[in-house]
């Protein structure tokens, strides 16, 4: 569990390790001291986002104008296919988790489909216990203590809830991840022994998105991880090669996805997020088989 800090000390990110692999892909503690407030773009991913902030509440929404903004210390965001916008104050700290969408039932009994294109107060789904957790984490003084308390909460919560998604949906999600979002929908339907229409129906009911949209998110997440790895390693970045290795038809299709998911081109996104990526932000939202 290592700490990675920017040279100018503006951002600090701490990796939480594998707290509960079946439910949480990754967890990152963060703290920042900025010269001025800024607007952060949260890209879509194949994970739900859970944020527990220890200072000012998080102000977020899906409109850059802020017309739909919600303010809360506990944010739970569903799957979405367009950027989210987060107003970042000068000083903030907290923990952000990438939660497996199919695990939400085991954390709350609620399917992730009910959160599509929404960012809500996590207490509305996870109950008042998550606010007790947030306050306890804020009172602790070290990141290892916080992550240990968070892991205990997650284990206890998943042990209390027995709700599970349909097995066909669970297997379909695993298949899409194994294919890194590049498999055909007809092959996926055959794999889970459902018709394509029926698969789309049960998939959307559980996750809020059809399997084709989730496949695009998986493919984009694979590309984003490769780009972030190259940036952190200060290695030469060939976006055409990234596009080819991640299953895109060509470079322009990767650029198209960046415009949809990040609201900008890959080069502009890298320039805007360079310091955050180098400091350890942008934790994985899916773990792909080797």
From TrEMBL:
A GO MF label: DNA-binding transcription factor activity
Domain HTH araC/xylS-type, chain residue ranges per copy: 184-272
InterPro entries assigned: AraC_XylS_family_regulators, Homeodomain-like_sf, HTH_AraC
UniProt keyword annotations, A-Z: DNA-binding, Transcription, Transcription regulation
Pfam families, sorted: HTH_18 (PF12833)
Key word Translocase present: no
UniProt KW Ion transport keyword: no
Entry protein name: Helix-turn-helix domain-containing protein
Organism of provenance: Saccharopolyspora aridisoli
The organism's taxonomic lineage, starting at the top: Bacteria, Bacillati, Actinomycetota, Actinomycetes, Pseudonocardiales
């Amino acid at each position: 569990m290592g700490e990675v800090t920017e040279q100018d000390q503006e951002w600090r990110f701490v990796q939480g390790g594998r707290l509960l692999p079946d439910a949480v892909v990754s967890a990152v503690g963060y703290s920042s001291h900025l010269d001025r407030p800024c607007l952060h773009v949260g890209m879509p991913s194949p994970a739900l986002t859970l944020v527990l902030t220890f200072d000012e509440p998080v102000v977020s929404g899906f409109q850059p104008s802020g017309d739909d903004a919600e303010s809360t210390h506990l944010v739970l965001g569903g799957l979405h296919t367009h950027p989210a916008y987060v107003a970042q104050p000068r000083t903030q700290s907290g923990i952000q988790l990438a939660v497996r969408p199919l695990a939400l039932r085991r954390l709350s009994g609620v399917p992730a489909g009910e959160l599509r294109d929404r960012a809500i107060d996590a207490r509305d789904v996870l109950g008042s216990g998550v606010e007790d957790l947030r306050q306890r984490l804020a009172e602790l003084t070290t990141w290892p203590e916080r992550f240990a308390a968070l892991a205990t909460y997650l284990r206890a919560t998943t042990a209390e809830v027995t709700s599970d998604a349909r097995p066909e949906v669970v297997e379909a999600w695993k298949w899409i991840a194994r294919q890194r979002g590049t498999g055909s929908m007809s092959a996926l339907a055959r794999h889970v022994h459902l018709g394509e229409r029926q698969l789309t129906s049960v998939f959307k009911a559980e996750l809020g998105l059809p399997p084709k949209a989730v496949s695009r998110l998986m493919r984009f997440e694979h590309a984003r991880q490769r780009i972030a790895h190259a940036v952190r390693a200060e290695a030469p970045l060939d976006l055409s090669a990234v596009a080819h290795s991640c299953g895109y038809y060509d470079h322009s299709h990767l650029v198209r996805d960046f415009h949809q998911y990040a609201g900008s081109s890959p080069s502009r996104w890298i320039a805007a997020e360079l310091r955050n990526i180098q400091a350890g932000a942008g934790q994985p939202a899916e773990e792909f088989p080797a």
